[in-house]
Structure formats: structure tokens, C-alpha cells
């Protein structure tokens, strides 16, 4: 097919649905002379999810346009990015990424023999590459390196030197992979401009850059491996896909930050050229769309119901996922998945893998903060306990069908009026306890400083938080909470010892921040307080 396309037709295929292209004229010039050489790199950190179909479908476009495509499994980058991938798991995660990405490409009909696969450490540890890293380090300022990685490298209060090296290595990859262009998300734009600025200072050519838009996740924010509610894993069962899509952000008529519409636009239309809405005959029956703009227009005008859009995406998505699930049914690949991504609540190695958990020194197997089900809640009512003067009942919305009843003495420190409609943090997997005859279904988390008088404040989630948002410890994002904490094991009591408020009023566990997807958990004034 590519031999029959003109340079202009190839350029259209290469650039369609991209948000931005840097160096477009240079690309056109290359296409007049020969086929384009492009690379896409992925750091082998968290498990790939369905948003990876967006670059996969774009890679299919590149191949249709006759491009020579290299896929880089950036294992060294995964380690440099705040140790998102522990050194001892690097090789296993590369193997997992290679298997799952090849399965994705096969599921959308991309011939693997047209692609070149390479691992970063195959060449990034060579003498010449290492020398170039030092040469680049002598030219790039700390400000430029930090700015370049701001949207890609994990941002922390005290960044490691490794995160500053990350953007420079990605720039050098363009030279060592001998490509004309690098392809990535628009979140990498600052790394791309750093490469354009500094590669010529080393005597290397400036490359072009192709940028995909960032696809919203199911919650309306960026789809992320560390945000369980924002993504669908490639190996999720059909019932899990249905459950996650059912909860997805999809307001009637709202086409902004709609992850489902974005998936239709950037994956389903480029692959199939059409999209079918499945609906009951009494609402007009099935309708096949041949242009995304028609789908978007009908949804904006509320001619397509969110429930029908979700059901139709579910059907199309499961067709893509079925061959991937089937491939990973083999014992070998199931074992690879479990060893590359061990359950942190069950393995001591996983405790050592996370930055925060590393501080624990592995003193007790499985004692990791991800076992705690901490969520954002909203107090919807406060009333006095009928049988205790010092206790009050709070009804708190935690994103479930019914609010939870919490018994606490917080009104002794904060007025009943101040608590009304306040956003707070709750530990939701404690065993319910009866307090003066009324069952408390969760624990309200507060900062406290002992003394006369005792001072207590509720912890504050980041602005814009919603009931049910998950709270996690930075560096320990993976792992699922226990269904119910066993009181005999004293898990909460052992972890709670290391929960403190920093001198900047940020909630921490062993010096690592408590976070939601929107930022840090704080308190108003109790610097150095305990969290209880």
C-alpha cells in the first residue's frame, strides 16, 4: 500500500489526529527522498493499559505510510524516573512489556515483522553513549533538565539526580537509534524541545517530533497506571471492563474530557474507519457512524445516550482485548505477569521496591501502607450521639451508594457548623466497632498534638477532591487494600506509628507524602502532629 501513496498522502497518514508536529517541513523533505524512520519509546514502569492503544493505532498509521518504526523498551529510563521500576525487576518488566505490546499490535492487525524492537540497556550502557551523557551533562543546566522532565518525570520535593538525567538520555536516543523523528505524547514536548536545542551542540542533527494528544481516563483526568479508577488494564476480565465503564465520567452532552469519546476518535476510527452505536430499537436502533465528528455532534446534542456510548465502547474494546487475554492464559505468561508486578501486600521484595517502603527496611513482610483503604469523604450531616455527651454521629459520603456512619468526638475541637459539608479523610477498611451502642463504619483521620489542651484537626484532601477518591502513599501506589483489616494483626496500629504531619503541614508516612490524584494531603496548622 505504501508504495502506491504519494508523499502528501503519507504525510497525511503520519500526522492525522496528532496534536502537534515540530519540524514538519523537514519530514516532508525526507518523504520526497525516502521512507521516514520513526521511534516510539515507553518506560517499562506500571502495567500498560487500554490508553496504549492510542500510540499503537498511530504506529499502524506509520507502517501504512511506509515508515521504518522502532519501538524502544526504555528500561533504564524506568529506573531513573524516581525508581518507578526496581532494578531487580527491570528485566522482567521489559519481558512483560514486550509480550503485552506485541499482543496489542497483533490484536489491531499490525505485522510485527515490519517493526524493530530494542531495549534501552542494549546500547545505553555502552562507552560512547555514556561519554555522550557526560558531555550533555556539561551543557544542560539544572533548570533546563528539571523543566524538560516536569510533565513526565515524577515530581517530588527532593528530586533524585537520576530524574534530571532522564530528559537528556531521551534526547540522545534519537541519535543512537538513527531516526528522523520521535513520536510521543504532548506531555513530552519539553523533552523534545530540549533535544532540539542540545543535540546540535554535540554535533548531532536536530530531529522532528510527532505528538499525540493526552487521552482522558475514565475519571476525566489523564489515564494513569497508578490511578486504579482512571484506567482499564489490558488483562481485565469482561465483567471488570463493564464495571469500570459503568462508573466512567460521561455526562450527557458533555464532550470535554470524555475518555470514551477520545477512545472512539483516536483508536476505533483509525483502526476500523467506523463506529457502531448499539441501542434499543425503541430509541432508534443501532447506528453506524463513518466519521467521528458525527458521533461527537450527536452526543453533544444528546441524540446518543451515555449508556449507549458506554455499551458500544465496551463491545469494541472487548474485541481488542480478547486476543490479549487469550495470549496471557498460558502458565508462562501468567507467571511473568505475577513476577514482574508482585503484589506488594504479599512480597517483601515489593516492599523494598517502592521508595517509601524502602525506608521501612523490610522489618515486617507485607506491612505496606497500600493495605489501608483511605478515601476522601464529605460530611453531609452531624448530630449528637443519643447516649454519649462527648460523641457525635457524622454521616459521610465516600462515593458509595449509602453514606457511612462515623462516631467521633471531633466536635469537641471543631464546631458542628464547621464540619458540615467538609471534605475529610476516612480509613474505610477497619472492622466496624460499636461505640455506645452505635456502629462506627469507618475512622475519621485527624492530626493531633498532645498537651493541655489537646489540639486536633481533620486532614484536608487537595482542593477539587471528590468523595471516594483514593488516598495513597507516594512511592507505594500499587497494591490493593485489604478487604477488612484483621484487628489481631494490628496492621493499622503498626503503620500508624509512622504517620506524621511534616513541618510544611503535609501528611506523611515515613517522610513520603500522602497523596490523591490531585495532590498532597495537608492539615491547616498542626506541624509535627501525629495522625490518628
UniProtKB/TrEMBL annotation:
Keywords: Aminoacyl-tRNA synthetase, ATP-binding, Cytoplasm, Ligase, Nucleotide-binding, Nucleus, Protein biosynthesis, RNA-binding, tRNA-binding. The keyword Cell membrane does not apply. It holds the Pfam family tRNA_bind. GO terms for biological process: response to stress; tyrosyl-tRNA aminoacylation. Residues 368-472 form the TRNA-binding domain. Coiled coil: none annotated. It is an enzyme of class 6 (ligase). Its main location: cytoplasm. This is Tyrosine--tRNA ligase.
Amino acid at each position: 500500500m505504501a508504495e502506491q501513496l504519494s508523499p502528501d498522502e503519507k504525510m497525511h497518514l503520519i500526522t492525522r489526529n496528532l496534536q502537534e508536529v515540530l519540524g514538519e517541513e523537514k519530514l516532508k523533505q525526507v518523504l520526497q527522498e525516502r521512507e521516514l524512520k520513526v521511534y516510539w519509546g515507553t518506560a517499562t514502569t506500571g502495567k500498560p493499559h487500554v490508553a496504549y492503544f492510542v500510540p499503537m493505532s498511530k504506529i499502524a498509521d506509520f507502517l501504512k505510510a511506509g515508515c521504518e518504526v522502532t519501538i524502544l523498551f526504555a528500561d533504564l529510563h524506568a529506573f531513573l524516573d524516581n525508581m518507578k521500576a526496581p532494578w531487580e525487576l527491570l528485566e522482567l518488566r521489559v519481558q512483560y512489556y514486550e509480550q503485552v505490546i506485541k499482543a496489542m499490535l497483533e490484536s489491531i492487525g499490525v505485522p510485527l515483522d515490519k517493526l524493530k524492537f530494542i531495549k534501552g540497556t542494549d546500547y545505553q550502557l555502552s562507552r560512547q553513549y555514556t561519554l555522550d551523557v557526560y558531555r550533555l551533562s556539561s551543557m544542560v543546566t539544572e533548570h533546563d533538565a528539571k523543566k524538560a522532565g516536569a510533565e513526565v518525570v515524577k515530581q517530588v520535593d527532593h528530586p533524585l539526580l537520576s530524574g534530571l538525567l532522564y530528559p537528556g538520555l531521551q534526547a540522545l536516543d534519537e541519535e543512537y537509534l538513527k531516526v528522523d523523528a520521535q513520536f510521543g505524547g504532548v506531555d513530552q514536548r519539553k523533552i523534545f524541545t530540549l533535544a532540539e536545542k542540545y543535540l546540535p551542540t554535540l554535533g548531532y542533527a536536530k530531529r522532528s517530533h510527532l505528538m499525540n494528544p493526552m487521552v482522558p481516563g475514565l475519571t476525566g483526568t489523564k489515564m494513569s497506571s497508578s490511578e486504579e479508577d482512571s484506567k482499564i488494564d489490558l488483562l481485565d476480565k469482561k465483567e471488570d471492563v463493564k464495571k469500570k465503564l459503568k462508573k466512567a465520567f460521561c455526562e450527557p452532552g458533555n464532550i470535554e474530557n470524555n475518555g470514551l469519546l477520545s477512545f472512539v476518535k483516536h483508536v476505533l476510527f483509525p483502526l476500523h474507519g467506523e463506529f457502531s452505536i448499539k441501542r434499543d430499537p425503541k430509541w432508534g436502533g443501532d447506528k453506524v457512524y463513518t466519521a467521528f465528528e458525527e458521533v461527537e455532534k450527536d452526543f453533544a446534542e444528546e441524540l446518543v445516550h451515555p449508556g449507549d456510548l458506554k455499551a458500544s465502547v465496551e463491545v469494541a474494546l472487548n474485541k481488542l482485548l480478547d486476543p490479549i487475554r487469550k495470549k496471557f492464559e498460558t502458565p508462562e505468561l501468567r507467571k511473568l505477569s505475577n513476577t514482574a508486578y508482585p503484589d506488594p501486600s504479599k512480597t517483601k521484595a515489593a516492599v523494598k521496591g517502592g521508595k517509601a517502603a524502602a525506608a521501612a527496611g523490610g522489618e515486617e513482610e507485607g506491612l505496606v501502607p497500600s493495605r489501608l483503604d483511605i478515601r476522601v469523604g464529605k460530611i453531609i450531616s452531624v448530630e449528637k450521639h443519643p447516649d454519649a455527651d462527648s460523641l457525635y454521629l457524622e454521616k459521610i459520603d465516600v462515593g458509595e451508594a449509602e453514606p457511612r456512619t462515623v462516631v467521633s468526638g471531633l466536635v469537641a475541637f471543631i464546631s458542628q457548623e464547621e464540619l458540615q459539608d467538609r471534605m475529610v479523610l476516612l480509613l474505610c477498611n477497619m472492622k466496624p466497632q460499636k461505640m455506645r451502642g452505635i456502629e462506627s463504619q469507618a475512622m475519621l483521620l485527624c492530626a493531633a498534638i498532645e498537651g493541655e489542651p489537646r489540639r486536633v484537626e481533620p486532614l484536608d484532601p487537595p482542593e477539587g477532591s471528590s468523595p471516594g477518591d483514593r488516598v495513597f502513599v507516594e512511592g507505594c501506589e500499587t497494591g490493593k487494600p485489604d478487604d477488612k483489616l484483621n484487628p489481631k494483626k494490628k496492621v493499622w496500629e503498626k503503620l500508624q506509628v509512622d504517620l506524621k504531619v511534616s513541618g510544611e503541614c503535609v501528611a506523611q508516612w515515613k517522610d513520603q507524602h500522602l497523596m490523591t490524584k490531585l495532590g498532597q494531603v495537608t492539615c491547616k496548622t498542626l506541624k509535627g502532629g501525629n495522625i490518628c
